[in-house]
Amino acid sequence: MATPRKARPERAPENQRALETESFYQPLDRHRLVIVCVKGNVSVRETLRTIIQNALGPRDTPPLLVLGPTAPEDIADGQAHRIGWVTFVDGTSLAHQIPEVEIISPDNLLEVNLFIEKASQGENHPIVGDFLDNVIRSIGSPESFYTFFCQLASRVKLKKRTAILVIKEDIHDRAMVETVKRFADVVLEFRDQDDEAGLKVEMRTLNFADNIYTSWRPFNDWQRPISVSA
User: Fold this and answer.
1) Is residue 24 part of a domain?
2) 81: left (phi over 0), alpha (psi -120 to 50) or beta
3) In angstroms, what is the C-alpha Rg of the chain?
4) CATH number for the domain including 173?
């Protein structure tokens, strides 16, 4: 049985703002496995765009995109190394108009693993995508998913890669979501909230690697990278 995480320590109030600022603005690719959970009307597509454009540190190598519900043409703009599209298609549409795209069935976990293994060799490309949504929905067995994700997380950490994976938390069983979070170094959570001014986005950080935890807080307009559009 996995050992549960220790309860997070209390933080002195005067240190809280500094810790929150640090966790929001440091590049995500200094960590190995980052899980980004979105709820409600927060857009997965815009979250992915924000990660690619703003959340990765300076680098010469573009990310390896492994997408799921999000289509390659919605994200790819010439900044991707290779693109895996983990989705169901009919037998007549296995090729994609973007040459770098390889289509993989989400219920073929071996092929998903092989694509990530082959495509991430050589340069240290960060892995970014939302393919877990399709994989989780396609696998009927929690045990099979646990084995798959344990292997993926272990490979990322042993090879000192970075994987930033986005999931739509409220479409999955809680147990599956907790499995994904269990292996993360950092979990970023986004949710939408209604107030008198309209819809707003809130975020909190669970940084297990650096022992930094934040409360839910709204983004200011100049801070907010996440669109609530579809």
Assistant:
1) no
2) alpha
3) 18
4) 3.40.50.300
